[in-house]
Fold this protein.
Amino acid sequence: MIEVRELTKRFGATAAVDGLSFTVRPGRVTGFLGPNGAGKSTTMRMIVGLDRPDSGTATVGGRPYRTGPAPLCTVGVLLEGRAVHRGRTARQHLLGLARTHGISARRVAEVLDMAGLGGAADRRAGGFSLGMSQRLGVASALLGDPAVVILDEPVNGLDPDGVLWIRTLLKDLAAQGRTVLVSSHLMSETAVTADHLLIIGGGRLLADVGIDDLITRAGTSHCLVRSPDAAVLHSALTAAGATVTAEDDGALIVRGVAAERIGTLAASRHATLHELTPHRASLEQAYMDITRSRA
Amino acid sequence: MTAAHRVTFARVARAEWGKLITLRSTWATLATAALITVGLAVAININVYRTAGAEVSPRALTAQTFLGVDVTSLILGVFGILMITGEYGSGLIRATFAAVPRRTPVLLAKAVVLVAAGFPATLAACAAAMLAGRALLPAGQHADIPTRALLGAAAAPVVLALIGLGIGALVRHTAAAITVYVLALLVLPAILQPALPGHLADDVVRYVPVAAAQALYAVDTGNPFRMLAPGPALLTVTVWTVLALAAGGAMLWRRDP
C-alpha cells in the first residue's frame, strides 16, 4: 500500500506536484495517468526517496521508504531513463544492487530469466536496445521480490512482444496480491491493464476512479438526430434544455438530454425521426475531458 | 522478503567492490598508473646516473624514483572523481540510491574499496620503482629508500583519489569535477606561492593537499622550502580527506539525484 498525503514539490517557481494525496491499494493494477509534465515521475521519485518533497509525506507500508531496512524488498522501482553503467553486463549490474541487500546470485539469474534477458545476461548493457534496457530495469525492480512495484512508463521502447510481456506481468503481480503503480500518458495503453486510475494534471489529482466507473461516468456524450422536421425538433429540444448544433447535412447533434427524452419529445410534436443514435464517449475522450477541463 | 535481506555497510562495500572490479576502466587505469610510476622511475634514474658524479643518497634516490608519483596522483584523482560522477552521468546513481536510500554509506563504501583496490596497486608500482631505482645506481655505490617514503609514495595518490571522490560527490558532473580538482589542488597552490608574502606563502602552501601528500614520501635535506614532517603531513592529508568526503557526503544527502 502506498499512501501519499499533501505531497508538494516545487522546481523554482513552478509546482511540479501540488498538494497531491492518494492511496494505492494492493491486489490491483493502478494506472497513474497524466500528460507529460503532469508530475507523475516526480511523484514516483518522491515515493522512493530520490526527490525530497517540499511538504507532505509519502509512505510505503506505513513508513517512509528511506527508513526501511531493506528498500529493494519493500518497493521495486523502474524509473524513466537508463540507470545502468554501459561497461557492466546485465548480471553485474543486478549483482551490484543485489549485494547491498544480501540477495543471492541465484535470484539475479531468476529475474534475468523473468525479464527475458537470460541469453543477454553476460553482455555489456552499453550495447542494449531501449527495449532490453527497459527489461533490465524491470528485472531490477523485481530483484527484492517486493510487495510494491512502481513502474514509470514501462512500455516505452518495447517491441510488441515486450508490451505483451509487461501487460501480463502487471496483471500477474497484482494477482499475487502486490501493489502495482504504473504510469503512462496514454489511456489506450493503461486501459488494457489497469483496474484503477489516478489521473493527474499540473501536479494535482484530477480523478481517483475505477476503470469501470470511468466507463459508466463517460456515459453518453451526445445523440445524432436526423428528421425531416428538424426545425420543430430544434426549438423543442432547446426549450427542453438541450444544446443543439445543426450539421451541414441537416443532422442535429444533441447534448444534454438522453436519447429516450428526445424520442418522447419528437412523438409529442409529431416529428418524424429517421435516425436517433446515442454516441458513447470513449475512455480516451473521458480522459481528455478530465485533463482538459481541470488541468 | 526474508529477514536476512537487509542493507548493511559490509554489504554495500561488497557491492561497491564488485562494481569497481567489473569495470575494464578500473584495471586499465591502475595498470597505466603503475606503468607510468615504474617507467618514469627507470627513465629518470638512468638519465641522472648517466652523468658521472651525480648525487647518490637516500634523498636523491627517493626524489628521482618517486618523481612520477605526481602523474599517478593526477590519474588516481580522476579515477576517484569518476567513481561517483560516472554514476551520475549514466543515471545509475538513481538505482544505487533506491537500493541504499541513506546514500552516505555508498560514498563511504566507495572510499573503502578505492583504498582496497588502489593502495595495493600503487604499493606494488612504487616497490617496483624502488627496486628499479636501486638497480640503476652507479656500480659499487649504495643508497636506500626509507620504508616510510615507499609507503608514503604509495599512499599519496590514494589520498588524492579520496579527495577526488569527495569533490566528485560535491560537483557530480565529470568535466566540472575534474576542472575543480585541477584548479583547487594543482593550480591554486601554485598561484598562492607568489600571491602571498614570503614566509606566509611557505607556511600556507605546506598544508595544501598536494604538498602534504608529497611530504609523505619526501626525504628532507633542508631545502629552502621546508615540507611538513611525515607525521604532520599524514595528519594534514587525513584532515583534507575527511573534509572532502564529509562535504561530498553532505551534498549527496541534501541534493536530489
